[in-house]
Amino acid sequence: MTEGNGAAIPAVGPEEGKDLPPVVSIENISRFEGQEVTVQGWLYNLRQSGKLLFPIFRDGTGLLQGIVAKKAVSPEVFALTRELTQESSLIVRGTVRADSRAVGGYEMDVTQLELVQGVPVEEPFPITPKEHGVEFLMHHRHLWLRSQRQNAILRIRHEISKACRDYLDGEGFILVDTPILTPAACEGTTTLFETQYFDDKAFLTQSGQLYSEATAAAFGKVYCFGPTFRAEKSKTRRHLTEFWMVEPEMAFATLEDAMKLAERFVTFVVQRVLANRKRELETLGRDVSRLEQVEVPFPRISYDEAVEILRRKGSDFEWGGDFGGTDETLLSEEFPKPVMVHRFPAAIKAFYMEPDASRPEVVLGVDVLAPEGYGEIIGGGQRIADRNLLHRRIQEQNLPEASFDWYEDLRKYGSVPHAGFGMGIERVVAWICGLEHVRETIAFPRMLHRMRP
Ligand code: 4AD
Ligand code: MG
Fold first, then answer.
1. Cα(350) to centroid of ligand 2, in Å?
2. With bands split at pLDDT 50, 70 and 90, how would you rate the model's confidence at 234?
3. Among 82, 117, 152, where does a domain finish?
4. What would the 3-class secondary structure string for the chain be?
């Protein structure tokens, strides 16, 4: 079989009967100093200087500069290397040597190089080291993911997702997955994606919360972690139509418990990334001094106090309104670490929010705003426990009662005060990585005007 420029695709993996050097990941290369190893990857860049070639290899875990000396390899390997095109796939063997000047601190004296698939010269890899516009890069997202910057972002995303799970698992929460196809709205009816469900219709879930309330009554402490959908017509740097949310929910818990969990949870996640993803944060040029300030406790302000702050800062924000992106930025600028805003007007929050007993016009909800202008990363609070009140709210908001009968059951059979929240992973990635826009925080973003690739 031949492909691209006609190079044969060799079998990958140890050839029988031969004692080949071990296949290693570039991220672990320091463990193999002085040894002969095999690296499987792609050509990132190539420089030539007389009888020396300096290919840089990439294997998804890091970059490694190779040195191909004319006198150290066969004439075929030298000629092959000299003609290598960007992103051609290859298998390379050689000896690892420390060199403080090299990317990653190590180099490889190459002895063997096999081409797996050569990128044709007449159809070069579209993304070159020169500057490209955002639209072009988004259009080529499937290839853009190979860049060092995107690699660093998605590795940090992985760390964040894992930290979320590790923290909640460690605190005794049970992961219970919730459905994506649902019969009803959770977060208001204006952002629902509707889809055909045989002879009926269904909606893509906006949040697993309602189901997590059921599982919290079954397990005590639970979380769900999955994709959620909002038909947001907003074209902002914070909105996606498909995003991932981690949602812990606790039985016998109040707004206060949700806030305590939120600040510990966020702190744990940030500290995990600082501890394990130093190199990636460096690649992104992130100023980590701001992240290092993230520690419990977080400042807490009421919605009323938030309105005062906004007005003091020159905004004409009126009590009763919902915060927009600019308001959130103004508020978060006041604090060096995330700030928790609680007790919002009932009218701007979801139907399930528990009213404050001493002041029923506000609800026991909380938003966590990230610092440095990254806006809301968490929304949650205490849920209505009373059966009659919940029923009234469902009617007031004209929600389809038949779809909520099971949810109302939870208030019929051993209702308890309960609370939780949802944290949007992409917003957290954008903040921790210091990114301009959430479009780079997920491998294949879905936005108002983008469904490709
Ligand atoms: O504040 P939201 O709408 O809260 C809920 O969905 C609750 N049911 C969660 C719960 O209590 N279990 O969304 C929660 C978080 C936001 O703070 C934000 O981080 C993220 O989800 N989010 C979005 N992220 C990207 N694009 C969007 N369109 C988002 N909408 C919400
Ligand atoms: Mg919210």
1. 9
2. confident
3. 117
4. CEECCCEECCCCCCCCCCCCCCECCHHHHHHHECCEEEEEEEEEEEEEECCEEEEEEECCCCEEEEEEECCCCCHHHHHHHHCCCCCCEEEEEEEEEECCCCHHHEEEEEEEEEEEECCCCCCCCCCCCCCCCHHHHHHCHHHHCCCHHHHHHHHHHHHHHHHHHHHHHHCCCEECCCCCEECCCCCCHHHCCEEEECCEEEEECCCCHHHHHHHHHHHCEEEEEEEEECCCCCCCCCCCCEEEEEEEEEECCCHHHHHHHHHHHHHHHHHHHHHHCHHHHHHCCCCCHHHHCCCCCCCEEEHHHHHHHHHHCCCCCCCCCCCCHHHHHHHHCCCCCCEEEEEEEHHHCCCCECEECCEEEEEEEEEEEECCCCEEEEEEEEECCCHHHHHHHHHHCCCCHHHHHHHHHCCCCCCCCEEEEEEEHHHHHHHHHCCCCHHHCCCCCCECCECCC
Å from CA of 187 to ligand 1 middle: 9
Check which CATH number belongs to the domain holding 340 and give it. Answer: 3.30.930.10
**Domains identified in the chain, total number:** 2
What is d(CA 91, CA 103) in angstroms, rounded to the nearest whole number? Answer: 19
Q: Average pLDDT in the 108-122 region?
A: 98
Q: Is ligand 1 within 6 A of the CB of residue 383?
A: no
Nearest alpha carbon to residue 156 among 316, 295, 277: 277
Amino acid at 135: E
352 and 412 fall within a common domain: yes
CA of 301 to the centre of ligand 1 (A): 20
The reply to whether 211 and 91 lie within a common domain is: no
Pairing of β 106-117 and β 339-345: unpaired
Q: For residue 10, tell me if it sits in a domain.
A: no
| Residue 249 Cα: closest atom of ligand 1 | 12
Find the mean pLDDT for residues 93-107. 94
Cα separation of 349 and 59, whole Å? 47
Is the pLDDT at 1 greater than 60? The verdict is no
Task: Tell me the pLDDT tens digit for each residue of 195-207.
Answer: 999 999 999 999 9
The closest ligand to the CA of 323 turns out to be 2
Question: Is the Cβ atom of 375 under 6 angstroms away from ligand 1?
Answer: no
